[in-house]
Design brief:
Keywords: Signal
Distance between the termini: 32 Å
Strand content: 15-25%
Number of helices: 4
Radius of gyration: 14 Å
Number of strands: 6
Strand order of the largest sheet: 1-5-4-2
């Protein structure tokens, strides 16, 4: 696969500071029902995922050291959001787990923002930079977007 840059944006990040709600996952949240996959991507149910799969904590080996992970080096990450957008860590983590489960499924984007996952308004959005179209494995989008999760903690 050719290395491409996909900007991952959480909660319509456009600039400013990241704001996060508490990191606890309420027992009543049914992420299987509320996660909206990106266009052309399978639903969590089609992947055979459970609510437990979507809410499991991100393993420590996926947490970047010194702010950059070896696994996400082909991606440019955006970690700032405008002050009027919030994204709960639990919602963002559901998107991380969903995109990670897609493994080598291509997550594609163009010059216009393309939503890859949405949970309660917490959106993971791809945007091709310096090209009309780009793609990365969805697992790499998860790794790259995880830098936003780090800011939410």
């Amino acid at each position: 696969m050719v290395a491409v840059k996909v900007a991952v944006v959480s909660a319509l990040c456009l600039g400013g500071t990241v704001y996060a709600a508490p990191a606890t996952v309420p027992a009543e949240v049914d992420y299987l029902s509320i996660l909206i996959p990106g266009e052309g991507l399978p639903t969590p149910q089609e992947l055979g995922l459970t609510n437990e799969d979507l809410t499991k904590p991100i393993p420590s080996d996926f947490l970047p050291s010194n702010g950059i992970s070896e696994r996400d080096n082909v991606l440019r990450k955006r970690t700032q959001c405008s002050p009027d957008h919030t994204c709960a860590l639990s919602d963002s983590t559901a998107c991380f787990n969903y995109l990670l489960s897609l493994n080598e499924t291509p997550c594609e984007a163009g010059k216009i923002n393309r939503q890859m996952c949405n949970v309660n308004g917490c959106r993971w959005i791809g945007l091709a930079e310096n090209t009309d179209w780009a793609r990365s494995y969805c697992r790499d989008v998860a790794y790259g977007g995880n830098s936003v999760n780090i800011e939410l903690k």
